[in-house]
Design brief:
alpha+beta, Ribosomal Protein S5, domain 2, 38% helix, 18% strand, binds adenosine-5'-diphosphate
Length: 494
Amino acid sequence: MSTSSEGDADAGGRTESQANSMNGKMHTGASHSRKESLPLAPPFMVSAPGKVIVFGEHAVVHGKAAMAAAISLRSYLLVTTLSKSRRTITLRFSDISLDHTWNIDDLPWAAFSHPARRKRYYDLVTKLDPELVAAMQPHVSDMSPQASSSERKIHQAAASTFLYLFLSLGSQHSQPCIYTLRSTIPIGAGLGSSASTTVCISTALLLQCRALSGPHPDQQSEEAEKQLERINRWAFVGELLIHGNPSGVDNTVSTGGKAVLFKRVDYSQPPLVKPLRDFPELPLLLVDTRQAKSTAAEVAKVAHLKKTHSGVTDHILNAIDQITESAHALITSDDFDPDSPTSLQHLGELMTVNHGLLSSLGVSHPKLERLRYLVDRADVGWTKLTGAGGGGCAITLLKPNTSNMNGDSTSSQPQSSALKALEQVLEAEGYKKYETTLGGDGVGILWPAVLRGGNGEAAEEIDQEKFLGADGREGVEALVGVAAGGEGWKFWRP
Ligand SMILES: Nc1ncnc2c1ncn2[C@@H]1O[C@H](COP(=O)(O)OP(=O)(O)O)[C@@H](O)[C@H]1O
Ligand SMILES: C[C@@](O)(CCOP(=O)(O)O)CC(=O)O
Protein backbone atom coordinates (compact mmCIF):
# COMPACT_ATOMS: atom_id res chain seq x y z
CA MET A 1 0.00 0.00 0.00
CA SER A 2 1.58 3.22 -1.01
CA THR A 3 -0.86 5.89 0.07
CA SER A 4 -2.78 6.16 3.32
CA SER A 5 -1.40 5.30 6.75
CA GLU A 6 -2.25 1.90 8.17
CA GLY A 7 -4.89 3.30 10.46
CA ASP A 8 -8.63 2.87 10.75
CA ALA A 9 -9.94 5.26 8.12
CA ASP A 10 -9.69 4.18 4.50
CA ALA A 11 -7.52 1.23 5.28
CA GLY A 12 -6.99 0.22 1.70
CA GLY A 13 -5.45 3.48 0.64
CA ARG A 14 -8.04 3.98 -2.09
CA THR A 15 -9.29 7.37 -3.04
CA GLU A 16 -12.59 8.45 -1.54
CA SER A 17 -14.45 7.79 -4.78
CA GLN A 18 -12.89 4.32 -5.26
CA ALA A 19 -13.78 3.37 -1.71
CA ASN A 20 -17.30 4.69 -2.09
CA SER A 21 -17.92 2.82 -5.29
CA MET A 22 -16.56 -0.42 -3.77
CA ASN A 23 -19.13 -0.07 -1.02
CA GLY A 24 -22.07 0.90 -3.13
CA LYS A 25 -21.59 4.62 -2.43
CA MET A 26 -21.58 3.87 1.29
CA HIS A 27 -18.97 3.99 3.96
CA THR A 28 -18.40 0.86 5.99
CA GLY A 29 -16.18 0.04 8.96
CA ALA A 30 -15.42 3.20 10.89
CA SER A 31 -18.42 5.08 9.59
CA HIS A 32 -21.58 3.90 11.32
CA SER A 33 -23.90 6.72 10.35
CA ARG A 34 -24.96 5.09 7.09
CA LYS A 35 -28.23 6.13 5.55
CA GLU A 36 -30.59 3.22 4.97
CA SER A 37 -31.87 4.70 1.75
CA LEU A 38 -28.51 4.54 -0.03
CA PRO A 39 -28.15 1.79 -2.66
CA LEU A 40 -26.61 -1.55 -1.72
CA ALA A 41 -23.13 -2.47 -2.87
CA PRO A 42 -23.41 -4.57 -6.02
CA PRO A 43 -22.49 -8.27 -5.82
CA PHE A 44 -18.83 -8.99 -6.53
CA MET A 45 -16.75 -12.13 -6.96
CA VAL A 46 -13.26 -13.25 -6.08
CA SER A 47 -11.45 -16.29 -7.43
CA ALA A 48 -8.24 -18.12 -6.52
CA PRO A 49 -6.50 -21.15 -8.01
CA GLY A 50 -5.52 -24.54 -6.64
CA LYS A 51 -1.96 -25.76 -6.92
CA VAL A 52 0.27 -28.74 -7.56
CA ILE A 53 3.39 -29.31 -5.52
CA VAL A 54 5.92 -30.53 -8.07
CA PHE A 55 8.64 -31.27 -5.49
CA GLY A 56 9.04 -31.03 -1.72
CA GLU A 57 5.64 -31.59 -0.01
CA HIS A 58 5.91 -32.54 3.68
CA ALA A 59 9.60 -31.58 3.75
CA VAL A 60 8.38 -27.99 3.32
CA VAL A 61 6.54 -28.21 6.66
CA HIS A 62 9.96 -28.83 8.25
CA GLY A 63 11.77 -25.85 6.76
CA LYS A 64 12.88 -27.40 3.45
CA ALA A 65 12.23 -26.04 -0.03
CA ALA A 66 9.20 -26.92 -2.17
CA MET A 67 8.45 -26.17 -5.80
CA ALA A 68 4.78 -25.53 -6.59
CA ALA A 69 2.67 -24.08 -9.37
CA ALA A 70 -0.86 -22.71 -9.68
CA ILE A 71 -3.34 -24.76 -11.71
CA SER A 72 -6.24 -23.60 -13.82
CA LEU A 73 -8.83 -25.25 -11.52
CA ARG A 74 -10.15 -22.51 -9.20
CA SER A 75 -12.59 -21.52 -6.44
CA TYR A 76 -15.11 -18.72 -6.94
CA LEU A 77 -16.76 -16.72 -4.14
CA LEU A 78 -19.76 -14.49 -4.81
CA VAL A 79 -20.47 -11.79 -2.21
CA THR A 80 -24.02 -10.46 -2.12
CA THR A 81 -24.76 -7.53 0.18
CA LEU A 82 -28.07 -7.46 2.05
CA SER A 83 -29.91 -4.48 3.45
CA LYS A 84 -28.60 -3.29 6.80
CA SER A 85 -31.83 -4.30 8.54
CA ARG A 86 -31.16 -8.03 7.94
CA ARG A 87 -28.28 -8.26 10.49
CA THR A 88 -27.20 -11.70 9.24
CA ILE A 89 -24.22 -13.37 7.60
CA THR A 90 -24.91 -16.47 5.50
CA LEU A 91 -22.47 -19.01 4.08
CA ARG A 92 -23.67 -20.99 1.06
CA PHE A 93 -20.84 -23.37 0.27
CA SER A 94 -22.76 -25.68 -2.00
CA ASP A 95 -19.90 -28.10 -2.89
CA ILE A 96 -19.93 -29.27 0.72
CA SER A 97 -23.71 -28.71 1.20
CA LEU A 98 -23.11 -26.05 3.82
CA ASP A 99 -25.82 -23.45 4.31
CA HIS A 100 -25.48 -21.59 7.57
CA THR A 101 -26.60 -18.21 8.91
CA TRP A 102 -25.32 -16.30 11.93
CA ASN A 103 -26.91 -13.25 13.51
CA ILE A 104 -24.20 -10.62 13.43
CA ASP A 105 -25.19 -9.29 16.84
CA ASP A 106 -24.85 -12.75 18.46
CA LEU A 107 -21.21 -13.18 17.45
CA PRO A 108 -18.40 -12.84 20.05
CA TRP A 109 -17.31 -9.31 19.14
CA ALA A 110 -16.27 -8.48 22.69
CA ALA A 111 -13.54 -11.14 22.63
CA PHE A 112 -12.28 -10.24 19.16
CA SER A 113 -12.29 -6.48 19.74
CA HIS A 114 -10.65 -6.61 23.16
CA PRO A 115 -7.67 -4.22 22.93
CA ALA A 116 -5.27 -6.93 24.13
CA ARG A 117 -6.35 -9.35 21.42
CA ARG A 118 -7.55 -7.20 18.53
CA LYS A 119 -5.56 -7.76 15.37
CA ARG A 120 -5.35 -5.21 12.58
CA TYR A 121 -5.49 -6.18 8.95
CA TYR A 122 -1.86 -5.12 8.55
CA ASP A 123 -0.49 -7.14 11.49
CA LEU A 124 1.89 -9.99 10.79
CA VAL A 125 -0.37 -12.75 12.10
CA THR A 126 1.42 -16.08 12.16
CA LYS A 127 -0.60 -18.02 14.70
CA LEU A 128 -4.09 -18.41 16.05
CA ASP A 129 -5.10 -16.90 19.37
CA PRO A 130 -6.43 -19.91 21.36
CA GLU A 131 -8.76 -17.69 23.40
CA LEU A 132 -10.35 -16.31 20.26
CA VAL A 133 -10.69 -19.80 18.81
CA ALA A 134 -12.43 -20.81 22.05
CA ALA A 135 -14.72 -17.76 21.93
CA MET A 136 -15.71 -18.63 18.35
CA GLN A 137 -16.21 -22.36 19.04
CA PRO A 138 -19.82 -22.27 20.33
CA HIS A 139 -20.82 -20.57 17.07
CA VAL A 140 -19.57 -23.45 14.93
CA SER A 141 -20.04 -26.44 17.21
CA ASP A 142 -23.83 -26.44 16.91
CA MET A 143 -23.96 -26.18 13.12
CA SER A 144 -25.28 -28.81 10.66
CA PRO A 145 -26.94 -30.99 13.32
CA GLN A 146 -28.46 -33.22 10.62
CA ALA A 147 -25.16 -33.92 8.87
CA SER A 148 -23.02 -37.03 9.41
CA SER A 149 -20.06 -36.50 11.72
CA SER A 150 -17.55 -36.48 8.84
CA GLU A 151 -19.66 -33.98 6.90
CA ARG A 152 -20.06 -31.82 10.00
CA LYS A 153 -16.27 -31.78 10.44
CA ILE A 154 -15.86 -30.43 6.90
CA HIS A 155 -18.56 -27.82 7.54
CA GLN A 156 -16.97 -26.76 10.80
CA ALA A 157 -13.50 -26.46 9.26
CA ALA A 158 -14.78 -24.26 6.43
CA ALA A 159 -17.02 -22.19 8.71
CA SER A 160 -14.28 -21.68 11.34
CA THR A 161 -11.94 -20.31 8.70
CA PHE A 162 -14.56 -17.86 7.57
CA LEU A 163 -15.70 -16.85 11.03
CA TYR A 164 -12.23 -16.30 12.51
CA LEU A 165 -11.34 -14.03 9.60
CA PHE A 166 -14.71 -12.28 9.64
CA LEU A 167 -14.43 -11.55 13.38
CA SER A 168 -10.79 -10.45 13.02
CA LEU A 169 -11.29 -8.18 10.03
CA GLY A 170 -14.89 -7.03 10.45
CA SER A 171 -16.87 -5.35 13.17
CA GLN A 172 -20.34 -5.50 14.67
CA HIS A 173 -21.22 -2.92 12.03
CA SER A 174 -20.14 -5.11 9.11
CA GLN A 175 -22.53 -5.24 6.21
CA PRO A 176 -24.96 -8.21 6.24
CA CYS A 177 -24.01 -10.49 3.37
CA ILE A 178 -24.38 -13.85 1.70
CA TYR A 179 -21.11 -15.55 0.75
CA THR A 180 -21.69 -18.17 -1.97
CA LEU A 181 -18.76 -20.44 -2.83
CA ARG A 182 -18.24 -22.91 -5.64
CA SER A 183 -15.04 -24.56 -6.75
CA THR A 184 -13.77 -26.55 -9.71
CA ILE A 185 -11.02 -28.08 -7.55
CA PRO A 186 -11.68 -31.57 -6.18
CA ILE A 187 -11.88 -31.32 -2.39
CA GLY A 188 -9.23 -33.01 -0.29
CA ALA A 189 -7.33 -34.37 -3.30
CA GLY A 190 -4.01 -32.62 -2.68
CA LEU A 191 -4.68 -29.78 -5.11
CA GLY A 192 -5.00 -27.05 -2.49
CA SER A 193 -8.79 -26.73 -2.40
CA SER A 194 -8.65 -25.44 1.17
CA ALA A 195 -6.03 -22.80 0.40
CA SER A 196 -7.94 -21.55 -2.61
CA THR A 197 -11.11 -21.13 -0.52
CA THR A 198 -9.25 -19.37 2.31
CA VAL A 199 -7.58 -17.03 -0.21
CA CYS A 200 -11.02 -16.17 -1.60
CA ILE A 201 -12.40 -15.54 1.89
CA SER A 202 -9.40 -13.47 2.95
CA THR A 203 -9.60 -11.35 -0.22
CA ALA A 204 -13.35 -10.76 0.03
CA LEU A 205 -13.16 -9.73 3.69
CA LEU A 206 -10.12 -7.50 3.18
CA LEU A 207 -11.89 -5.83 0.26
CA GLN A 208 -14.96 -5.29 2.40
CA CYS A 209 -12.98 -3.70 5.22
CA ARG A 210 -11.20 -1.57 2.61
CA ALA A 211 -7.79 -2.97 3.33
CA LEU A 212 -7.00 -3.55 -0.34
CA SER A 213 -6.50 -1.27 -3.27
CA GLY A 214 -6.72 -2.28 -6.90
CA PRO A 215 -6.04 -4.29 -8.78
CA HIS A 216 -5.83 -1.63 -11.44
CA PRO A 217 -3.75 -1.40 -14.60
CA ASP A 218 -1.46 1.43 -13.52
CA GLN A 219 -0.78 -0.09 -10.09
CA GLN A 220 2.88 -0.05 -9.10
CA SER A 221 4.39 -3.48 -8.81
CA GLU A 222 5.42 -2.81 -5.22
CA GLU A 223 1.87 -1.88 -4.27
CA ALA A 224 0.41 -4.98 -5.95
CA GLU A 225 2.90 -7.10 -4.04
CA LYS A 226 1.84 -5.50 -0.75
CA GLN A 227 -1.83 -6.25 -1.42
CA LEU A 228 -1.03 -9.87 -2.24
CA GLU A 229 1.08 -10.23 0.87
CA ARG A 230 -1.80 -8.98 3.01
CA ILE A 231 -4.22 -11.46 1.41
CA ASN A 232 -1.72 -14.27 1.84
CA ARG A 233 -1.09 -13.57 5.54
CA TRP A 234 -4.76 -13.78 6.43
CA ALA A 235 -5.28 -16.80 4.19
CA PHE A 236 -2.49 -18.51 6.16
CA VAL A 237 -4.49 -17.84 9.34
CA GLY A 238 -7.46 -19.55 7.69
CA GLU A 239 -5.27 -22.52 6.74
CA LEU A 240 -4.14 -22.81 10.37
CA LEU A 241 -7.75 -23.55 11.30
CA ILE A 242 -8.09 -26.31 8.71
CA HIS A 243 -4.67 -27.95 8.86
CA GLY A 244 -3.13 -27.19 12.24
CA ASN A 245 0.43 -26.85 10.96
CA PRO A 246 0.51 -25.71 7.32
CA SER A 247 3.75 -24.60 5.69
CA GLY A 248 1.95 -21.82 3.81
CA VAL A 249 3.05 -22.98 0.38
CA ASP A 250 -0.53 -23.68 -0.77
CA ASN A 251 -1.94 -20.27 0.15
CA THR A 252 1.16 -18.54 -1.23
CA VAL A 253 0.76 -20.14 -4.65
CA SER A 254 -2.99 -19.64 -4.61
CA THR A 255 -2.54 -15.95 -3.82
CA GLY A 256 0.26 -15.10 -6.22
CA GLY A 257 -0.33 -17.72 -8.91
CA LYS A 258 2.46 -18.71 -11.36
CA ALA A 259 5.13 -21.00 -9.88
CA VAL A 260 7.43 -20.57 -6.92
CA LEU A 261 10.24 -22.03 -4.92
CA PHE A 262 9.06 -21.73 -1.31
CA LYS A 263 10.79 -22.12 2.04
CA ARG A 264 9.72 -21.23 5.58
CA VAL A 265 12.43 -21.76 8.15
CA ASP A 266 11.12 -19.50 10.90
CA TYR A 267 7.36 -19.69 11.38
CA SER A 268 7.24 -16.29 13.06
CA GLN A 269 8.58 -14.69 9.88
CA PRO A 270 7.22 -14.49 6.34
CA PRO A 271 8.44 -17.32 4.08
CA LEU A 272 11.12 -17.02 1.41
CA VAL A 273 9.33 -17.07 -1.92
CA LYS A 274 11.25 -17.13 -5.17
CA PRO A 275 9.03 -16.66 -8.23
CA LEU A 276 9.93 -19.04 -11.07
CA ARG A 277 9.20 -16.67 -13.92
CA ASP A 278 9.90 -18.95 -16.85
CA PHE A 279 8.40 -22.07 -15.40
CA PRO A 280 8.48 -24.56 -18.30
CA GLU A 281 5.31 -25.93 -19.88
CA LEU A 282 5.74 -29.44 -18.57
CA PRO A 283 3.75 -32.27 -20.17
CA LEU A 284 1.94 -33.43 -17.02
CA LEU A 285 -0.83 -35.92 -16.44
CA LEU A 286 -2.81 -35.25 -13.26
CA VAL A 287 -4.73 -38.20 -11.83
CA ASP A 288 -6.95 -38.39 -8.76
CA THR A 289 -7.10 -41.71 -6.89
CA ARG A 290 -10.46 -40.58 -5.49
CA GLN A 291 -9.23 -41.83 -2.14
CA ALA A 292 -10.20 -39.30 0.53
CA LYS A 293 -7.38 -38.12 2.76
CA SER A 294 -6.77 -35.61 5.49
CA THR A 295 -3.83 -33.22 5.15
CA ALA A 296 -3.72 -32.72 8.92
CA ALA A 297 -3.48 -36.50 9.50
CA GLU A 298 -0.70 -36.99 6.91
CA VAL A 299 1.29 -34.04 8.27
CA ALA A 300 0.88 -35.46 11.79
CA LYS A 301 2.22 -38.85 10.60
CA VAL A 302 5.46 -37.25 9.43
CA ALA A 303 5.74 -35.20 12.63
CA HIS A 304 5.37 -38.43 14.63
CA LEU A 305 8.06 -40.17 12.57
CA LYS A 306 10.38 -37.21 13.03
CA LYS A 307 9.89 -37.43 16.77
CA THR A 308 10.32 -41.17 17.12
CA HIS A 309 13.00 -41.73 14.42
CA SER A 310 14.54 -38.30 14.21
CA GLY A 311 17.90 -39.21 12.66
CA VAL A 312 16.55 -41.23 9.78
CA THR A 313 13.60 -38.88 9.17
CA ASP A 314 15.94 -35.90 9.02
CA HIS A 315 17.98 -37.71 6.36
CA ILE A 316 14.86 -38.33 4.30
CA LEU A 317 13.71 -34.70 4.62
CA ASN A 318 17.19 -33.48 3.67
CA ALA A 319 17.22 -35.79 0.66
CA ILE A 320 13.86 -34.36 -0.48
CA ASP A 321 15.34 -30.88 -0.02
CA GLN A 322 18.26 -31.82 -2.28
CA ILE A 323 15.88 -33.16 -4.91
CA THR A 324 13.89 -29.91 -4.91
CA GLU A 325 17.04 -27.79 -5.13
CA SER A 326 18.38 -30.02 -7.88
CA ALA A 327 15.12 -29.77 -9.85
CA HIS A 328 15.19 -26.01 -9.38
CA ALA A 329 18.76 -25.80 -10.71
CA LEU A 330 17.76 -27.99 -13.65
CA ILE A 331 14.67 -26.11 -14.82
CA THR A 332 16.30 -22.70 -14.40
CA SER A 333 19.45 -23.70 -16.30
CA ASP A 334 19.89 -22.42 -19.85
CA ASP A 335 20.19 -26.00 -21.07
CA PHE A 336 16.76 -27.10 -19.86
CA ASP A 337 14.40 -27.83 -22.73
CA PRO A 338 10.95 -29.25 -21.88
CA ASP A 339 10.89 -30.96 -25.30
CA SER A 340 14.24 -32.66 -24.87
CA PRO A 341 14.19 -36.34 -23.83
CA THR A 342 17.34 -35.87 -21.74
CA SER A 343 15.96 -32.88 -19.80
CA LEU A 344 12.66 -34.64 -19.16
CA GLN A 345 14.33 -37.86 -18.12
CA HIS A 346 16.50 -36.02 -15.60
CA LEU A 347 13.52 -34.21 -14.10
CA GLY A 348 11.41 -37.38 -14.19
CA GLU A 349 14.00 -39.39 -12.30
CA LEU A 350 14.00 -36.75 -9.57
CA MET A 351 10.21 -37.14 -9.36
CA THR A 352 10.53 -40.91 -9.03
CA VAL A 353 13.03 -40.59 -6.17
CA ASN A 354 10.89 -37.89 -4.49
CA HIS A 355 7.92 -40.25 -4.55
CA GLY A 356 10.01 -43.08 -3.08
CA LEU A 357 11.07 -40.85 -0.20
CA LEU A 358 7.49 -39.72 0.45
CA SER A 359 6.47 -43.35 0.45
CA SER A 360 9.18 -44.12 3.02
CA LEU A 361 7.70 -41.36 5.20
CA GLY A 362 4.46 -43.35 5.15
CA VAL A 363 2.31 -40.89 3.20
CA SER A 364 1.62 -42.94 0.09
CA HIS A 365 -1.45 -45.17 -0.32
CA PRO A 366 -2.07 -48.50 -2.10
CA LYS A 367 -4.12 -46.63 -4.73
CA LEU A 368 -1.19 -44.28 -5.37
CA GLU A 369 1.19 -47.24 -5.63
CA ARG A 370 -1.17 -49.01 -8.01
CA LEU A 371 -1.35 -45.88 -10.15
CA ARG A 372 2.42 -45.66 -10.21
CA TYR A 373 2.65 -49.31 -11.23
CA LEU A 374 0.16 -48.82 -14.07
CA VAL A 375 2.02 -45.77 -15.41
CA ASP A 376 5.38 -47.56 -15.14
CA ARG A 377 3.97 -50.60 -16.92
CA ALA A 378 2.68 -48.40 -19.75
CA ASP A 379 6.13 -46.79 -19.84
CA VAL A 380 4.74 -43.31 -20.47
CA GLY A 381 6.45 -41.26 -17.74
CA TRP A 382 7.59 -40.65 -14.18
CA THR A 383 5.08 -40.42 -11.33
CA LYS A 384 4.92 -38.98 -7.84
CA LEU A 385 2.12 -38.19 -5.42
CA THR A 386 1.35 -34.50 -5.04
CA GLY A 387 0.08 -32.74 -1.91
CA ALA A 388 -0.34 -34.48 1.39
CA GLY A 389 -0.68 -38.05 0.02
CA GLY A 390 -2.59 -40.76 1.86
CA GLY A 391 -4.82 -40.71 -1.25
CA GLY A 392 -5.53 -37.69 -3.41
CA CYS A 393 -3.64 -36.98 -6.62
CA ALA A 394 -0.46 -37.96 -8.41
CA ILE A 395 1.36 -36.23 -11.24
CA THR A 396 3.08 -37.97 -14.12
CA LEU A 397 5.70 -36.20 -16.19
CA LEU A 398 5.08 -37.64 -19.63
CA LYS A 399 7.88 -38.96 -21.80
CA PRO A 400 8.37 -37.26 -25.16
CA ASN A 401 6.11 -38.66 -27.90
CA THR A 402 3.47 -39.46 -25.33
CA SER A 403 2.25 -35.89 -25.32
CA ASN A 404 -1.02 -34.35 -26.34
CA MET A 405 -2.15 -35.66 -23.00
CA ASN A 406 -5.53 -33.97 -23.39
CA GLY A 407 -6.35 -36.33 -26.21
CA ASP A 408 -7.17 -33.34 -28.36
CA SER A 409 -7.81 -34.74 -31.80
CA THR A 410 -7.19 -31.36 -33.42
CA SER A 411 -3.59 -31.34 -32.23
CA SER A 412 -0.91 -31.99 -34.79
CA GLN A 413 0.65 -34.53 -32.48
CA PRO A 414 -1.47 -37.62 -31.97
CA GLN A 415 -1.80 -38.97 -28.48
CA SER A 416 0.29 -42.12 -28.11
CA SER A 417 -1.61 -45.35 -28.10
CA ALA A 418 0.16 -46.36 -24.88
CA LEU A 419 -1.20 -43.28 -23.12
CA LYS A 420 -4.69 -43.83 -24.52
CA ALA A 421 -4.67 -47.42 -23.33
CA LEU A 422 -3.42 -46.31 -19.90
CA GLU A 423 -6.18 -43.75 -19.59
CA GLN A 424 -8.78 -46.42 -20.33
CA VAL A 425 -7.34 -48.70 -17.64
CA LEU A 426 -7.26 -45.83 -15.16
CA GLU A 427 -10.87 -44.97 -15.84
CA ALA A 428 -11.94 -48.59 -15.50
CA GLU A 429 -10.18 -48.79 -12.14
CA GLY A 430 -11.94 -45.68 -10.82
CA TYR A 431 -9.18 -43.10 -11.22
CA LYS A 432 -10.08 -39.66 -12.56
CA LYS A 433 -7.94 -37.62 -14.91
CA TYR A 434 -7.92 -33.83 -14.59
CA GLU A 435 -6.97 -31.50 -17.37
CA THR A 436 -5.26 -28.37 -16.22
CA THR A 437 -2.54 -25.96 -17.17
CA LEU A 438 0.17 -24.79 -14.78
CA GLY A 439 1.39 -21.35 -13.81
CA GLY A 440 -1.72 -19.18 -14.30
CA ASP A 441 -2.90 -16.12 -12.41
CA GLY A 442 -3.37 -16.00 -8.66
CA VAL A 443 -6.26 -14.35 -6.86
CA GLY A 444 -8.51 -12.13 -8.97
CA ILE A 445 -11.64 -10.03 -8.54
CA LEU A 446 -14.70 -9.41 -10.64
CA TRP A 447 -16.30 -6.19 -9.46
CA PRO A 448 -19.17 -5.82 -10.00
CA ALA A 449 -20.14 -9.45 -10.71
CA VAL A 450 -20.81 -8.79 -14.36
CA LEU A 451 -19.10 -10.66 -17.17
CA ARG A 452 -18.70 -9.43 -20.69
CA GLY A 453 -18.19 -12.15 -23.29
CA GLY A 454 -15.75 -11.69 -26.14
CA ASN A 455 -16.88 -10.41 -29.57
CA GLY A 456 -19.00 -7.65 -28.11
CA GLU A 457 -21.43 -10.10 -26.47
CA ALA A 458 -23.84 -8.52 -23.97
CA ALA A 459 -22.78 -8.17 -20.35
CA GLU A 460 -24.12 -10.87 -18.03
CA GLU A 461 -24.83 -10.20 -14.37
CA ILE A 462 -23.93 -13.09 -12.10
CA ASP A 463 -26.47 -13.45 -9.34
CA GLN A 464 -26.83 -16.18 -6.75
CA GLU A 465 -29.46 -18.07 -8.66
CA LYS A 466 -27.32 -18.31 -11.79
CA PHE A 467 -24.19 -19.11 -9.85
CA LEU A 468 -25.81 -21.86 -7.77
CA GLY A 469 -27.64 -23.15 -10.85
CA ALA A 470 -24.48 -23.66 -12.93
CA ASP A 471 -24.18 -27.36 -13.73
CA GLY A 472 -21.13 -28.92 -12.06
CA ARG A 473 -17.53 -27.86 -12.54
CA GLU A 474 -18.00 -27.32 -16.27
CA GLY A 475 -21.05 -25.12 -15.65
CA VAL A 476 -19.18 -22.95 -13.13
CA GLU A 477 -16.22 -22.65 -15.48
CA ALA A 478 -18.48 -21.74 -18.41
CA LEU A 479 -20.42 -19.16 -16.39
CA VAL A 480 -17.71 -17.31 -14.49
CA GLY A 481 -14.46 -19.08 -15.35
CA VAL A 482 -11.27 -17.11 -15.37
CA ALA A 483 -9.83 -19.66 -17.80
CA ALA A 484 -12.89 -19.41 -20.10
CA GLY A 485 -11.69 -15.91 -20.87
CA GLY A 486 -14.69 -13.83 -19.82
CA GLU A 487 -13.73 -10.19 -19.66
CA GLY A 488 -13.86 -8.44 -16.33
CA TRP A 489 -11.58 -10.45 -14.05
CA LYS A 490 -8.70 -8.38 -12.72
CA PHE A 491 -5.51 -9.57 -11.06
CA TRP A 492 -2.80 -8.04 -8.92
CA ARG A 493 0.26 -8.49 -11.10
CA PRO A 494 3.45 -7.35 -9.36
N1 LIG B 1 -15.35 -26.12 -2.46
C1 LIG B 1 -15.23 -25.97 -1.14
N2 LIG B 1 -16.22 -25.43 -0.42
C2 LIG B 1 -16.09 -25.27 0.91
N3 LIG B 1 -15.02 -25.65 1.62
C3 LIG B 1 -14.00 -26.20 0.98
C4 LIG B 1 -14.04 -26.39 -0.44
N4 LIG B 1 -12.89 -26.97 -0.82
C5 LIG B 1 -12.16 -27.15 0.31
N5 LIG B 1 -12.81 -26.69 1.39
C6 LIG B 1 -12.32 -26.75 2.79
O1 LIG B 1 -11.01 -27.33 2.76
C7 LIG B 1 -11.00 -28.61 3.42
C8 LIG B 1 -10.19 -29.61 2.59
O2 LIG B 1 -8.85 -29.35 2.79
P1 LIG B 1 -7.71 -30.45 2.49
O3 LIG B 1 -8.07 -31.73 3.16
O4 LIG B 1 -6.39 -29.87 2.77
O5 LIG B 1 -7.83 -30.66 0.97
P2 LIG B 1 -6.93 -30.09 -0.18
O6 LIG B 1 -5.79 -31.03 -0.29
O7 LIG B 1 -7.79 -30.11 -1.38
O8 LIG B 1 -6.53 -28.70 0.24
C9 LIG B 1 -12.46 -29.00 3.53
O9 LIG B 1 -12.65 -29.78 4.69
C10 LIG B 1 -13.17 -27.65 3.64
O10 LIG B 1 -13.09 -27.18 4.96
C1 LIG C 1 1.80 -31.86 2.92
C2 LIG C 1 1.88 -30.38 2.59
O1 LIG C 1 3.24 -30.08 2.24
C3 LIG C 1 1.00 -30.03 1.37
C4 LIG C 1 -0.46 -30.32 1.57
O2 LIG C 1 -1.21 -30.05 0.40
P1 LIG C 1 -2.77 -30.44 0.30
O3 LIG C 1 -3.46 -29.92 1.55
O4 LIG C 1 -2.86 -31.92 0.20
O5 LIG C 1 -3.28 -29.75 -0.94
C5 LIG C 1 1.48 -29.59 3.82
C6 LIG C 1 1.84 -28.11 3.78
O6 LIG C 1 2.76 -27.72 3.03
O7 LIG C 1 1.23 -27.37 4.54
